[in-house]
Amino acid sequence: VLVQAWPYFGTIMEKTFKEVLEPKIRAKNVHLKTCTFTKIHFGEKCPRINGIKAYTKEIGRRQVTLDLQICYIGDCEIHMDISKFNLGVKGIQLYGTLRVILEPLLTDAPFIGAVTLFFMQKPHLEINWAGMSNLLDVPGINVMSDSLIQDFIAARLVLPNRITVPLKKNMNIAHLRFPIPHGVIRVHLLEAENLVQKDGFLGAIRGKSDPYALLRVGTVQHRSKTVSRDLNPIWNETFEFVIHEVPGQDLEVDLYDEDPDKDDFMGSLLISLVDVMNDRTVDEWFPLSKTTSGHLHLKLEWLSLVNDQEKLHEDKKGLSTAILIVYLDSAFNLPKNHFEYSNGECGAKKIKNNKYLKKMEREPSSFVLLTVGNKTQKSKTCNFSKDPTWGQAFTFFVHSAHSQSLHVEIKDKDRDSALGTSVVCFSHLLKDPNMTLDQRFQLDHSSSDSFIKMKLVLRALNAEEPDPQRVKAGVSASKQGPVRVMEKGGNQQKFVSPPRPEASEAPPVSKDSAALESLLKKDSGEDLDTNDSSAAPVPSETVAGLHEAEREQNPEHRPSSALHTRAVVVPTLPVVQELRLAPSVASLGSLPSSCFELSRSNLDLYNGTEMPLGEIQLTVRYASIRQSLVVLVNGCRNLVPSSNRGVDPYVRIYLLPDRRWTSRKKTSVKKKTLNPQYDEKFEFFESLEDVKKRTLDIAVKNSRPFISQERKELGKVRIDLSQEDLIKGFAQW
Fold it and tell me: Mind spelling out the 3-state secondary structure of 416-476?
């Protein structure tokens, strides 16, 4: 679609630049009156969408949510003349993940009420400047100009900012542009251990590093204190982030060694906030990625936003108890300058100068400073208007709702003077049952008919109790492999459960998966990733898996190293079939420490004939931009129940040979179904060369009570990634 439409888009944009943008630039400033676009060409190369993910869970039924991975390496050329200078752009690179929300869905045409667009993180941008003797290519200026444009995009298009376009007439889009955030994540940065030494000392002798952490969610970043000369630093600091989109936003943690010249990178972590939201509290040691050693101890708490004044009691530890959401709409009848309402004599003396008088006669270019406690946020600037419209949202953490207040100050960018101020005590909000005020506020120190229109919403932070039935994600919340690392000294190996015999032949590829595969051949989708080793699903864990049943009841027991080696060897297919078809009771019992009962495990071995165990649909692809293997678990069908009470299936994934607990991935649990739908994505951050040497080990398991005797494993498949075209990807049952 984009390839076909691109020339037409280019024509529309050329017209827009000449007829709309050029007059606007000329009106901005007297020096820009000669501005002319001499060349506007959007080139032959159009943007690409490398992948699309559609969300169906954890969102409302009246919306469609899509993530588009956009990549634009363009050959556009735009030149403009200003006075005697020539300035231009010759090529742009832009890539990032754009979220598109279609809501609300309607029962009549156009079926969608509005489209909302925003980037989850700041997109990557590079511009090749031309003209002005390539002044803007000078390294310092080049970076400065690119970052200014990135900031311009961030102020409008990166969360929490969004663009909403109504498709239906008279559609109220205020609640779509500024939805209430999903919640707050409280991050306790506790300590780290075994960090990499970065500081050299006297040449060959290694010194100790001075580590600090950068924590980031979207555009908000916090920095921890620096711990001097310590590879096992203890911080014990707490940071709070407002979460606007789940799923979508992640917590990024980077560790650095502070140096006088350039700080050295010491490892990073990416944590999925969906898992934290579902688990409510995660307190784990996470292994750091992109480094050779090191673990980070974090405690993460999910706080939901509730309309309950009883939860607003002051926290004795000084932590936040609420958040204030400010929807800054507009102002009316702002004075042209400070002297319109200040002392007349004072003003008269200052405005005798004719030149200054002209400057003051024009409409103000105003911005707003909003302050709660010691935190101040600044709005964008609206140029030359006494009735400016900002249309922005801001959030503030509140420690004491009964005593704090919001201070608002409107300023003119050309003069360091206030055009009006206002103070709103939160006690006014508490008088409203919804803790909401949506009104015009009279401005002080301004004209008598000057107002500012805002909507203020106060919400208490509530730490809910986790669901005792839920299987916790733990460290698997980490997207870079970190899955739960046991306490120090504990067993860090997670053992695989008893295998279920599998069909020795590949199940036929269904029409829909064949169609999906043909799509994948044309382009590699970010999330479209599956694999096809169904031709020989080889359960190499056949031996190792038999001992999980006892291990759960007897945690002290550790298998012998001999058993480990046997577990890792992948037998050839005939041997596996022999194992499947004829596991004698004697041979099973002879394995060390096996308390595996055939009758109880219900292996479906009826007189040596196999029963099919069902199918799993997977999509697998290597995402080059993110340097990660993406595995999408779509769903299962026709699973065989392991007990009369039904099964609660979930899927567990390892990227062999790494079978550590910390690198395990798992889906959510689906209750009482033999045909579960997951549509859950997992990423393994490894280079393509490394991934090509690995094997995907995927097991479908039954989540059963701890003391239950039911069989846990429902089926398993192995995929040899060296045999697959991972850049193209594949989708298959």
Answer: EEEEEEEEEEHHHHHCCCCCEEEEEEECECCCCCCEEEEEEEEEEEECCCCCCCCCCCHHH
Nearest to 308 by CA among 479, 215, 213, 434: 434
Is residue 113 classed as helix, strand or coil in its secondary structure? strand
Q: Does domain 322-340+363-463 correspond to CATH entry 2.40.50.140?
A: no
| Nearest CA among 317, 244, 311 for reference residue 458 | 311
- Number of other residues whose CB lies within 10 A of the CB of residue 584: 9
**Pairwise pLDDT comparison (316 vs 370), residue with the higher score:** 370
Q: Which residue do the tokens 């980031």 mark?
A: 216
Extents of the domains making up the chain: 1-168, 183-306, 322-340+363-463, 615-732
Euclidean distance between CA atoms 519 and 674, whole angstroms: 28
323 and 304 in contact (C-beta within 8 Å)?
no
Please, are residues 87 and 133 in contact by the beta-carbon 8 Å criterion? no
Angle at 101 between CA 99 and CA 107, to 5 degrees: 160
Q: What is the pTM for the complete model shown?
A: 0.58
Q: Which residues of 310-322 are buried (b: 16+ CB within 10 A; e: fewer)?
A: ebbeeeeeeebbb
pLDDT of residue 340 exceeding 80 = no
| Tokens, residue 675 | 């045909």
pLDDT band at 512 (very low <50, low <70, confident <90, very high): very low
Q: Is the pLDDT of residue 424 over 90?
A: yes
Does the pLDDT of residue 491 top 50, yes or no? no
Query: What is the C-alpha R_g of the chain?
Result: 30
User: What would the pLDDT profile of 377-421 be if each residue is shown by its tens digit?
Assistant: 998 888 878 889 888 889 999 988 888 999 999 888 777 778 889
Two structure tokens written together for 654: 């390892």
Q: In angstroms, rounded to a whole number, what is the distance separating the alpha carbons of residues 629 and 637? A: 24
The CATH superfamily assigned to 183-306 is: C2 domain (2.60.40.150)
- Core vs surface per residue 646-674: b (16+ CB within 10 A) or e: ebbbbbbbbbbeebebbbbbbbbbbeeeb
Query: Between vectors from CA 541 to CA 538 and to CA 543, what angle results, nearest 5°?
Result: 120
Helix H or strand E encompassing 271: strand 264-272
Helices (H), 300-402: 344-350, 354-361
> Which residue has better confidence, 346 or 610?
610
The domain 615-732: what is its CATH number? Answer: 2.60.40.150
Ranking 43-47, 137-141, 401-405, 652-656 by mean pLDDT, the lowest is 137-141
pLDDT level of residue 709 (50, 70, 90 thresholds): low
